Every structure is written in C-alpha cells, then in structure tokens.
Amino acid sequence: MEILRSYTFIIISIGTLFLAISSAIIGSLNLYKGQSLIGDAIGHSTFPGIVLFFMIFQTREPSILLLGAMLTGGISYFLIQMSSKYSKVRLDANLAIFLSGFFGLGMVFKSVIQGNAKFQGASQSGLENYIFGQAAYMLEKDVKLIIIVSIIVITLFLLFKKEIIAFIFDREFAKTIGLNTGLIEFVLLLMTIALVSVGLKAVGSILISSFLILPCVCANHWSKKLRNVLIIASIVAAFSAVLGTYFSSIHRGLSTGPTIILTMGSITLISMLFGKYGVVVNMLRLRSKQ
Questions:
Q1: Which long-range contacts (CB under 8 A, 24 or more apart) does 142-147 make?
Q2: Which residues form the signal peptide (predicted)?
Q3: Assigned fold of 2-205
Q4: pLDDT band at 49 (very low <50, low <70, confident <90, very high)
C-alpha cells in the first residue's frame, strides 16, 4: 500500500496509463487498416532522429527529442509508402528494410558522439533508454509530455472518428462521398508517429509496437464491433499499465516497460484461448456441428 501512495509510482503509472489507452485506440485503427507493423517500423525509425537532434541541440529535453523522433519517423513512413507503391517490393519487405536501415543509422549516429570531444559538454547518458525504454526513470516533464500528446491524439480521433472509420474500412466509399482521404491518412499517421515518439522513453523503440497491437488483438477475441473493441482494448491497456507498473515497483530488477508488455501479453494470450472468439470456444463450436 505504501507503494501505491508513493510519488514515483503515481507519476509513472499516470504516464503509462495515458500512453497505453491512446496507443490502444490508435493501434486498433492501424490494425484494421492492415498496417499492424507500421508502428514497429516507425518506432525503430525514430531513434536516428532522437540522436540527430541531440547532436544538433546538445540537450536531452524531451520536447526537442520528440521533434527529431517525429521527423525521421515521418520520413521512414513516406519512404515505405513510396517504395510499396512504385516498386515491386511488398509492404512487409519494405517495413523490414526501412526498420533495420533507420535503426542502424541511429546506432551509427550514437557511435559517432561517443568519445567525440564536441559532445563532452552535453550529457549523453539516457539516450540508450530510447532503445529499450526506462519508464522507472521518467521525469515529471516526460509524463506531462505523454499526457499532452495523448489528449491531443484522442481529441483528433473524436473529431475525425466517422471519417477515419469510413477511410479504414472502405477507402473507395470514403472517396465517393467526398472525404479528403489524403487528409484523413495524414491525421492517422500524425497520431501514430506522435504516440510512438512520445512513448519511446517509457517502453523503447523495440517494444512500442506491442502497445499498439496487443490490446486490439485481445479485444478482437471478445467482440467484433469496433466500438466494443476500442473500449475493451483501452481497458486492457490501462489495467496492464497500472498492474505492470505496480509489479515492477515491488520487485527490484523488473523493468517497467517490459513488465507492462508481459502483463498485456498474458491477458492477450488468455483471451486468444478462452475469449468469446478464442481457440477453445471455436473448437467446441466446430465439434458441436460435426
């Protein structure tokens, strides 16, 4: 109970809670759009932007590094879409190419600044946290940035909800009724990049895609209605964030981000097996029909 009242636990749990809920909603939209791994590609692609903006401004101010992450994440997304559209390389291959390429570029940038006399005056410690995440060391300003971005993202979703849903499930229909599909796709991309970028400090570029995918996968095994899926995904994400943060707080040596993902993954696995549309229920239905 003392941990639940501690300032550190409250700050971290609030940050991961907001990040989890907003990521569950936007991740569900990307999953239905058929680009479930786009968050993974963007997450890896943000790392060179973070290191590059550190090299330029020589500061680890979260808002500055966020802009760098969004810049290279957006460039990577643009290159993936262009390559998929105008080349014979399939989307999954393009995701792998640019994911590894941009992440490798980030590691090159990081190796450049190590031992470089030009950056001795600026603290480089903490940059590696954007690879694996370090939610336990998030500062109050990190959490405030997560809350602000999450509120903006959820507000954009509510404002463009009908248009986004029409675009995701039937792009041609959206065009015929006069919707600006280019603008809708840009809004969806902006929300995804913003969430991925702001969540790197908490869970890192490697695990951020799990925040986007797992809650929706879990919810899909309980309902087929989009409204219910978004609600269930948000609840699962929020519960996992708080419970994962609690477990990592009472057990030393457990990293917060991975513990949240493990909690979320466990709930998803149980749902895949025993959910309303899970493996066990489907097997029983097939047997009853035989």
A1: 142/15, 142/62, 142/201, 142/202, 143/11, 143/12, 143/14, 143/15, 145/62, 145/63, 145/66, 145/198, 146/15, 146/18, 146/19, 146/198, 146/199, 146/202, 147/14, 147/15, 147/18
A2: none
A3: ABC transporter involved in vitamin B12 uptake, BtuC (1.10.3470)
A4: very high
Is the distance from CB of 95 to CB of 34 less than 8 angstroms?
no
Q: What letter does residue 178 receive in the DSSP assignment?
A: T
Matching residue, tokens 């466990």: 266
Query: What's the gap between Cα 132 and its chain centre?
Result: 13
List CB contacts of 101: < 8 A, sequence separation 6 or more: none
Q: What is the DSSP string of 84-107?
A: HHHSS--HHHHHHHHHHHHHHHHH
Residue type, position 259, single letter? T
Instruction: Give the integer Cα–Cα distance in Å for 132 and 282.
Output: 37
